[in-house]
Amino acid sequence: MSVIAASESGQRLGVTQLRVINSEWVKFRSLRSTWWSVGIALLIAMGLGVLFSALRGHDMSVHGDIEPDQTALSLRGFYLAQLAVGVLGVLFVTGEYSTGMVRATLAAAPKRVPVWVAKAAVFTAALFVVSLAASFIAFLGGQALLHTYHLSGGGKFIVNNGGNVTTWGPDSVLGVSLGSPGALRAVFGAALYIVGVGLLGMGCGWIIRNTGGAIAALFGLLLVLPLLAQALPSSLQDHVSKYLPLLAGTAGMSTIRDTNQLGPWAGLGVFALYVVAALLAGVVVLRRRDA
Amino acid sequence: MIEAVGLTKRYGEKLAVDDLSFMVQPGVVTGFLGPNGSGKSTTMRMLLGLDRPTSGGATINGRPYEQLRAPLCEVGALLEARAIHTGRSARNHLVALAATHGIGKRRVDEVLDLVGLSHVAGKRAGGFSLGMGQRLGIASALLGDPHTLILDEPVNGLDPEGILWIRNLLRALAAEGRTVFVSSHLMSEMALTATHLIVVGQGRLIADASVAELTAASGGAVVRVRTEEAPRLRELLAADGVDVTSTERDLFTVTGLSSTQIGKVAAEARIALIELTPQQASLEEAFMELTRDAVEFGTPMAATTMEVAR
Fold this sequence. Notes:
The complex is a heterodimer.
Chain A: H1 17-29, H2 32-63, H3 70-74, H4 78-99, H5 101-108, H6 112-146, E1 157-161, E2 164-168, H7 183-208, H8 211-229, H9 234-241, H10 245-250, H11 264-288
Antiparallel strand pairs in A: 1-2
Helix pairs in contact in A: 1-6, 2-4, 2-6, 4-5, 4-6, 4-7, 4-8, 6-7, 7-8, 7-11
Chain B: E1 2-11, E2 14-24, E3 29-33, H1 40-47, E4 55-60, H2 71-74, E5 75-78, H3 90-99, H4 105-114, H5 130-142, E6 148-152, H6 160-175, E7 179-184, H7 187-193, E8 196-201, E9 204-210, H8 211-217, E10 222-227, H9 230-237, E11 243-246, E12 251-255, H10 259-268, E13 273-279, H11 283-296, H12 300-305
Parallel strand pairs in B: 3-7, 3-8, 5-6, 6-7
Antiparallel strand pairs in B: 1-2, 1-4, 8-9, 10-12, 10-13, 11-12
């Protein structure tokens, strides 16, 4: 047995934040479930975006009813893709607890905060890159398809988007470009939102540790909460709903401001607060409780 | 060196570990022996900073585990429940752990080779047998070439071949001068591998002594004597504090005299000895004697969960 006093690069052996990040990166990419989740999420985000664009484009060319936010139309696949990314975020943490791996992880890197930082950093970096790519492809693919359709004759539509007035007349070619108002921001917004969903899942994972429980918490928070809010008196409903994670987080994905939604950046900001709160609660639990 | 001072862990009403203090010295295999549920695993998790003690503390080479800068290079640990993600290959599992310390892939291949898993390094750990999982656990414990090893029930559930492998490995590691701290509820296993024993029952320290001291303390040494002139020799040996019992005409056992003393007496009387064998009280007997109190005054559970090795 050889005594290894120094790493192969000649540096001193020991735990550093960068090395823990490297370790989490190895863990992240060495599981099949990662590739499945990412693959399915990409396929849904791009495939559905393009599919919806084609269907609605055809519809508009036949019935002449304009879809005002054609950017959001091509990004609609992200609503389903968030399930796969959310589950991946949960599993990245709870997989360690269900298999007992967390004890090996914390025996190798006994300080817990660096492990928490590393997991969040690896997940954010990896998912942001692929989500942004998916978002661009969904937008460009969707708009290219829309571009093959003409609005059917008859109607004339004026879309007023916060002062930016677009007029759709008979025989206008459908589809918008990346340069049109809010389009590029929406493309980034979709990627930011879906990464946020994954991080929210990680937060739930750190707090609950159990895969089923954490997934239930995540999607209860995202999908069930807005439904519950509908039970509120209507005067209160709109004020509450727009601050819930789903509506706040997806505000950045549209180019036309819905009066019941926060502005794009305000919405993403509120959503970020949920994500940060969940992750901070997670690190408190991680530090306090026995592994 | 491992040191525990007043280590205590309370789960609600139950004291899993009760004011445990001990030292594990380098250079020998130290057995951590106790019935199931006596707090061994909890103690080991506290040594590794995974569980927080209710009071007291533990240090490795003078520092708490979580303050070690390169823990894998000082302490290698094998934990009872498999601490391996079932979906990851053996090699990637080790590469990920090694990465936290900047340990290279060459070392990963080295430890895979050492535990005999090279041929399945790319296979997912979820498909591993208990023995292969245990080998992978040992491989991760050896990654940083640590001077101290903490192994929780390493032979648990292994087949005879696996048990023999672990036993030889532990001996080899100790022979290299490492500190080896191994828990077990099997006394016979400890008798074969350990030099020193820390015995616990119901979370409390029962004994902290060498295997030789423990066996000597339980009734002392017995010498088996076979001679054709048994009655004459028995007469010559009779004295205060010497006890002779016989089961056959030519055969008797003596307590209270060493084999040297018996041999000299026989030689002076010109009695031919056919057999003269010093016999150790078995470690199992010593263990039963030691834990009897802990079991008697404890819950009936502790008595029923105690497994006695054959």
